[in-house]
Amino acid sequence: MKNVEKYKKGYFMPPQVDMSWTSKEYPDKAPIWCSVDLRDGNQALVIPMSLEEKLEFYKMLIRMGFKEIEVGFPAASETEFEFLRTLVERDMIPDDVTVQVLTQAREHIIQKTFKALEGVKHAIVHLYNSTSYAQRQQVFRKSKEEIKQIAVDGAKLLQRLTEEAGANYRFEYSPESFTGTEPEFALDVCNAVLDVWKPTADRKAIINLPSTVQMSMPHVYASQIAYMSRNLKYRDNVVLSLHPHNDRGTGVADAEMGLLAGADRIEGTLFGNGERTGNVDVITIGMNMYAMGIDPGIDFSYMPEVVEMYERVTRMHVHERQPYAGKLVFAAFSGSHQDAIAKGMQFREDHREPYWTVPYLLIDPKDVGREYEADVIRINSQSGKGGVGFIMEHNYGIRMPKKMRENFSYFVKSVSDHRHQELKPDEIYRLFTDHYLDVTKPLEMEDFMIKKQHGHWKGQILMRVGGKDIIFQGEGNGQLAAVAHAICDAYGITVSHLEYSEHDLDRDPSSRGIAYFGLTDEKGQTTWGAGIDTDTMTASVRAFVSAINRMPGMAERITFRNLSSSYDQIHNFRRSASHH
Ligand SMILES: CC(=O)SCCNC(=O)CCNC(=O)[C@H](O)C(C)(C)COP(=O)(O)OP(=O)(O)OC[C@H]1O[C@@H](n2cnc3c(N)ncnc32)[C@H](O)[C@@H]1OP(=O)(O)O
Ligand SMILES: CC(C)C(=O)C(=O)O
């Protein structure tokens, strides 16, 4: 990158660097949350939300459990002003919810903000002015003292108008562009504002330290927070708030480290919507806590609904990889991951594990309203038998023998590879039914009879082969062996190894069973087949016939042998079978 010399660090280390907070592993409780979706999020949208859209978003925030909500910048536009008035007129602010409004430190803007607040019981009036070196130099062209005076004058006006309104509003001050401000100066301005407000234990003030533009690594921001936390006046009566943005992509890390360094409150948005690269995503911070066993105090359990509402009213898109919320964040396509997840789920069930320890999944997808079947194991050409087996078992109750699962999964993979597509569960099931289940070509079984004679089993099967009815007969020391011999002897098939299993299809209300056969021929090649029926023996014979039909070279064997049965034989079989 040839222009690198254009850049230097734009942030300031605090005069005393305190990193003692790094010894803490995690905050032991959730912070106070404040959603700024309807203000910072909204001001960053290509088309800001309409009144109705903001109302819908607001209702969702209330439902999720946010108790502090920045509802807008009432002096900014008619819609912003009207929004707050609508909340008041429709009595939409629950008693335990505090609405927050943002205002510049300019008299007419503050006056208009207070007009919008008339009739609000619990409000936070949020005052800001930029304190950064760059903005003092280039935007305001004012000295530090003059900048401090803007904040102090604004703070006094808030105090006066609140008293005049007979209200009990709480106050918040943000030294905007804090991360580009010398920490000593930010401290000086904040303390001057606090001297105006003189916060008490029952009317605390909020000092909000925004990384308006993220400029440093997270530990530097956290050191700035630690410095402010230690040196702010009235600290016990100050709620120390963070408002991270995400320019460097580390908004969540800023917030988490800032909490370790002494902060009490987080301002952020759902999915990190906000100016430029966004505000910090409160869902990620909250769910990170949840995944460590700390209740975030916000309900994220119906995430798909939240995503749907958010995408509709903001016209933004939640990225597929968005932590905890994206469509693909629980999906495992690759074989080894699927195998471990399927085994982990089984282990969990078998051992009644109290804690969530399933490999590859930080949290249980069900906790955020996602489904294992649809969201976790997804099948494409990278998948393996664990994943295919999981889909077949969880969606259709089909528990193939291990080797058959392997055989089927290679088939499924190759279909996905050739089509260059993901295969959904119903397509996988169709591949199974079309290729492995009750295969009727070239041999189609019409009926069979098995009898025990002199301690030996005798089997007869009526087959339709190339338009002809043929009866096969065989003997064996078991019922299935008799059937197997009947077919194998007829066509000279040698089976060197035979694998069989069956189980009830427990998801099937008509209580059918499924049987599986694996037949290994003289060359060592194994072919699998399956059969379903309410009668176990019928299911097994069907499975056997399916496997036989799938053996390589069956069509040639049939042409070569060209067997037949007489009309009388067929007639007699049918008559006996109907009495059977
Ligand atoms: C980091 C943040 O997200 S801060 C919030 C930013 N959000 C918004 O700005 C959205 C809503 N804003 C608006 O709709 C408009 O800016 C309004 C209605 C509030 C004000 O509009 P305007 O009066 O046209 O002016 P504008 O916002 O451009 O302000 C520029 C003037 O205000 C001054 N100013 C800007 N911010 C502040 C502040 N926080 N406190 C005091 N003065 C300020 C500037 O120095 C400039 O002064 P100048 O006129 O002497 O040059
Ligand atoms: C008004 C302040 C808190 C802000 O939005 C920011 O600095 O990003």
Automatic annotation (TrEMBL):
<feature type="binding site">
    <location>
        <position position="279"/>
    </location>
    <ligand>
        <name>Mg(2+)</name>
    </ligand>
</feature>
<dbReference type="InterPro" id="IPR013785">
    <property type="entry name" value="Aldolase_TIM"/>
</dbReference>
<dbReference type="InterPro" id="IPR039371">
    <property type="entry name" value="LeuA_N_DRE-TIM"/>
</dbReference>
<comment type="similarity">
    <text>Belongs to the alpha-IPM synthase/homocitrate synthase family. LeuA type 2 subfamily.</text>
</comment>
<dbReference type="InterPro" id="IPR054692">
    <property type="entry name" value="LeuA-like_post-cat"/>
</dbReference>
<dbReference type="Pfam" id="PF22615">
    <property type="entry name" value="IPMS_D2"/>
</dbReference>
<dbReference type="InterPro" id="IPR000891">
    <property type="entry name" value="PYR_CT"/>
</dbReference>
<comment type="function">
    <text>Catalyzes the condensation of the acetyl group of acetyl-CoA with 3-methyl-2-oxobutanoate (2-ketoisovalerate) to form 3-carboxy-3-hydroxy-4-methylpentanoate (2-isopropylmalate).</text>
</comment>
<protein>
    <recommendedName>
        <fullName>2-isopropylmalate synthase</fullName>
        <ecNumber>2.3.3.13</ecNumber>
    </recommendedName>
</protein>
<keyword id="KW-0432">Leucine biosynthesis</keyword>
<dbReference type="InterPro" id="IPR002034">
    <property type="entry name" value="AIPM/Hcit_synth_CS"/>
</dbReference>
<dbReference type="InterPro" id="IPR036230">
    <property type="entry name" value="LeuA_allosteric_dom_sf"/>
</dbReference>
<comment type="pathway">
    <text>Amino-acid biosynthesis; L-leucine biosynthesis; L-leucine from 3-methyl-2-oxobutanoate: step 1/4.</text>
</comment>
<feature type="binding site">
    <location>
        <position position="40"/>
    </location>
    <ligand>
        <name>Mg(2+)</name>
    </ligand>
</feature>
<feature type="binding site">
    <location>
        <position position="245"/>
    </location>
    <ligand>
        <name>Mg(2+)</name>
    </ligand>
</feature>
<dbReference type="InterPro" id="IPR005668">
    <property type="entry name" value="IPM_Synthase"/>
</dbReference>
<dbReference type="GO" id="GO:0003852">
    <property type="term" value="F:2-isopropylmalate synthase activity"/>
</dbReference>
<comment type="subunit">
    <text>Homodimer.</text>
</comment>
<keyword id="KW-0100">Branched-chain amino acid biosynthesis</keyword>
<feature type="region of interest" description="Regulatory domain">
    <location>
        <begin position="439"/>
        <end position="580"/>
    </location>
</feature>
<keyword id="KW-0012">Acyltransferase</keyword>
<dbReference type="Pfam" id="PF00682">
    <property type="entry name" value="HMGL-like"/>
</dbReference>
<dbReference type="InterPro" id="IPR013709">
    <property type="entry name" value="2-isopropylmalate_synth_dimer"/>
</dbReference>
<keyword id="KW-0808">Transferase</keyword>
<keyword id="KW-0460">Magnesium</keyword>
<feature type="domain" description="Pyruvate carboxyltransferase">
    <location>
        <begin position="31"/>
        <end position="304"/>
    </location>
</feature>
<keyword id="KW-0028">Amino-acid biosynthesis</keyword>
<keyword id="KW-0479">Metal-binding</keyword>
<dbReference type="Pfam" id="PF08502">
    <property type="entry name" value="LeuA_dimer"/>
</dbReference>
<feature type="binding site">
    <location>
        <position position="243"/>
    </location>
    <ligand>
        <name>Mg(2+)</name>
    </ligand>
</feature>
<keyword id="KW-0963">Cytoplasm</keyword>
